[in-house]
Amino acid sequence: MLAEALSRIGADVAATFDALLPVPGDARARLYEAIRYAALGGGKRLRPLLLVATAEMYGVDRAAALRAACAVEAVHCYSLIHDDLPCMDDDALRHAKPTLHLAYDEATAVLAGDALQAFAFEVLADPDHFGDPFVRAELVLVLARAAGPAGMVGGQALDIAAETSTFDLAQVTRLQQLKTGALLAAAVEMGAVLGHVQAEGRRHLRGYAHDIGLAFQIADDLLDHEGDEGRAGKALRKDAEAGKQTFVSLLGADRAREQARLLVDQAIAHLASHGAEADLLRAIARYIVERDH
Amino acid sequence: MLAEALSRIGADVAATFDALLPVPGDARARLYEAIRYAALGGGKRLRPLLLVATAEMYGVDRAAALRAACAVEAVHCYSLIHDDLPCMDDDALRHAKPTLHLAYDEATAVLAGDALQAFAFEVLADPDHFGDPFVRAELVLVLARAAGPAGMVGGQALDIAAETSTFDLAQVTRLQQLKTGALLAAAVEMGAVLGHVQAEGRRHLRGYAHDIGLAFQIADDLLDHEGDEGRAGKALRKDAEAGKQTFVSLLGADRAREQARLLVDQAIAHLASHGAEADLLRAIARYIVERDH
């Protein structure tokens, strides 16, 4: 089930981005090509998968869910473009291709990231995409909070602070909840918004998302520690070289692996009120710690 | 009337940003301080003034209009932060202070800009700020379209293209409509959205905004050509040094000045169906070409 879902979401996200981002016939073409290079350039599409899997539990139209999924993925892609910049992580490789500022140039990379963030909110607020104004406004709110200084960008700021001070486990957990967890949780919650899920149902789904978000990051730290650069398609072991604390450096690999497994069990327990319709979310939770890239 | 309105909007925008952006008690504090350095650091607040002046024509609550005004100003501020980066315009001075990447560092400048864009949409989508979900979604749509690749960022991409090819008057006009005009027009239109103005009324206001947007840019080119760096609080004559075409280089200073005056008359003509309640918008139109910084 999961392998098919992963391959299907990859194709669907690419097709949806392709339809939403046609290249204009003027001098902006290079910007759009850069945006498409980043947005259509691959990745696991985990956030779109979480959003669509949640939405489908509530019978939401797949095409509408995919548009919302492209919005959350656009925010993820823009954050990778800016993260890779020379003044940030200075990375040369992303999804086994040159990073955007190397494939184009730094100015275009800054602008393409900026454009992708605006694009995300443009997609969500468009009445042709989502008929209910409450749904549009709520999708924007959930994504904006997860993306902004109280979410992902705040986590990136903590990540910069972690370079010059020694973070303990609580601080690393908080950093990762913001930097990675907030957007993963937003993906699940946006699926619930599309399904008109009320407060109690959203609370359980947030619990699920919160736990898989941390499990995801621990798995990432383990892959960074033990993984293969060719398989990952990006540089590894940069945190250790930079002397930054990770779950693995703080807990050791064995306890980190155990902690990730516990979080997955806990995530699945949040889905107890659901039947077979939540099987894909359960499979995603297990995949998150078992993946090899 | 205008002098008082300009001074009042400056104080009100600063107070609203201050209330919306409290500094958290953790390692994100530096990011928030950087955001506040940029957002509270001055500027004419022309976009907030346009939004609030339009909204007040329709009796919109000033506090609500100011929150929307801070959203559009946040997008303007983020664009200045990223524009000033070494890989973009590499500017050292903004509002007579060191640019953000010099006052802090480049990574923080990238993140502060990214955070301000997310913050803008977070403010607009918050049900505590605007009770009507249609208004929230519509405010986001207008701002996102104006900010994104079909608006401001698209204009910045054209600006980069203009460095390596010789733009004619039509191309420079298009560049400026996107780079500066789109956000000025969005400010007016967001004021109209808050006032529940229907299609026909919004069309007239868009005409007004379109004309003052171009007049603003011509005035900027004239100030850049003839102005004083101390008064402007930023480096001038960079376009001429870079060999980029401007309204002044293409039309000459006299014809450019005449064109700006014609656009102001035309902008004011779009307000013909309004009485004294539009006097502030008329005064803003005149100010735009008469200002000395």
What is the topological layout?
The structure is a homodimer of 293-residue chains.
Chain A: H1 2-20, H2 29-39, H3 46-57, H4 62-83, E1 93-94, E2 97-98, H5 100-103, H6 106-125, H7 133-147, H8 152-161, H9 169-194, H10 199-226, H11 229-232, H12 238-241, H13 247-251, H14 253-269, H15 279-290
Antiparallel strand pairs in A: 1-2
Outline of the structure:
2 copies of one chain form a homodimer. With 293 residues, chain A is an all-alpha fold.
Which range best describes the helical content of chain A: under 10%, 10-25%, 25-40%, 40-55%, 55-70% or over 70%? over 70%
Instruction: Identify the CATH class of chain A.
Output: Mainly Alpha
Order of helices and strands of chain A: HHHHEEHHHHHHHHHHH
Structure class of chain A: mainly alpha
The average pLDDT score of chain A comes to 94
**Largest sheet: spatial strand order of chain A:** 1-2
Largest sheet of chain A: 2 strands, antiparallel
Instruction: Specify the CATH homologous superfamily of chain A.
Output: Farnesyl Diphosphate Synthase
Discrete helix count of chain A: 15
Provide the gyration radius of chain A in Å. 18 Å
Low-pLDDT residue intervals, each spanning 5 or more residues of chain A: none
Q: What gap, in angstroms, lies between the N and C termini of chain A?
A: 19 Å
CATH architecture of chain A: Orthogonal Bundle
Largest interface summary: A-B, 57 and 57 residues
Percentage of residues in strands of chain A: under 5%
As an assembly, this protein is homodimer
Tally of individual domains of chain A:
1
